[in-house]
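Now for today's protein.

===
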Amino acid sequence: QVQLVESGGGLVQAGGSLRLSCAASGSIFSINFMGWYRQAPGKQRELVAIITNGGTTNYADSAVKGRFTISRDNTKNTVYLQMNSLKPEDTAVYYCWATTDRHDYWGQGTQVTVSS
């Protein structure tokens, strides 16, 4: 079992920044990838970015590339999502995600609201 706890969401004005954190615990040795998804009101959950155990990153959407940065601190078992130049369309619930050979795990979600 893997537990994921997110923090760092909130309300920010357009152009501002936020950093989300996701602390993993439990069977962390079994994790293959971690990442962030988001779900805006009335839309499907979508992948934002993933990071491998070795630190290789991939961003799913050109809309966030260059503005968002995913990183990890293996000493703290924590993955981060630095979000800069935020736009109102970034408003969503952001979910931390981890995958093992057998299961996908999700955090509880953290709300990010960007006002115009």
Notes: The longest strand covers residues 18-26. The chain has a mean pLDDT of 95. The CA atoms of residues 5 and 66 lie 26 Å apart. DSSP finds no helices and eleven strands in the chain.
